[in-house]
Amino acid sequence: MTAIAVTIAGSDSGGGAGIQADLKTFSALGVYGASVVTALTAQNTRGVQAIHDAPPEFVAQQIDSVFSDLAVDVVKIGMLSQVPMIEAVTAGLARHGVAKIVLDPVMVAASGDRLLAGDAVEALRELLIPRALVVTPNLPEAAAILDEPLARDEEAMLAQGLRILETGPRAVLIKGGHGEG
Q: Domains in the chain, please, with CATH?
């Protein structure tokens, strides 16, 4: 039986992140991939030129549509740029009893462009991080989740990971690509 994964994320028109990257990864691993689009971006390798958020009600409809038809094994969450979007996704996952959630708390694009509203960090912290099986922030995202300075050494990174773990997820993987060394 083929595993089924759903990506709930933004669309990256440049193809290097978001739903496009998730579906490519699912396929490479032999997993059937479905998607819920939270935003459209005009973006390329140099940056994000524009973001168009999907209406939260439509995102909820996509979630209900996918889950009413497929026996989903796991959900991977990416870009949720606004509080109403986080609330709609959280409610949809609760409606369908989703227990296996991988949360990539996308806050800033690789180009440095902000992808998460400042007031949405608290909603992410309270609503989704505690529900996640695994949370995968990069170094700046881990600092933002905790409202702390960027971890500069391995000891500080470990401490931040442990503090995020205390908020409810079963595991935390802090990606160090933004670090030195």
A: 4-132 (3.40.1190.20)
Q: What is the spatial distance between Cα 120 and Cα 85, in angstroms, rounded to a whole number?
A: 9
Which tens digits make up the pLDDT trace of 28-44? 999 999 999 999 999 88
pTM: 0.92
Tokens read off for 64: 């209900």
Express each pLDDT in 42-58 by its tens digit: 988 888 899 899 999 99
Q: How far apart are CA 19 and CA 33, in angstroms?
A: 10
For residue 109, how many C-alpha atoms fall within 13 Å in the half-sphere facing its CB?
23
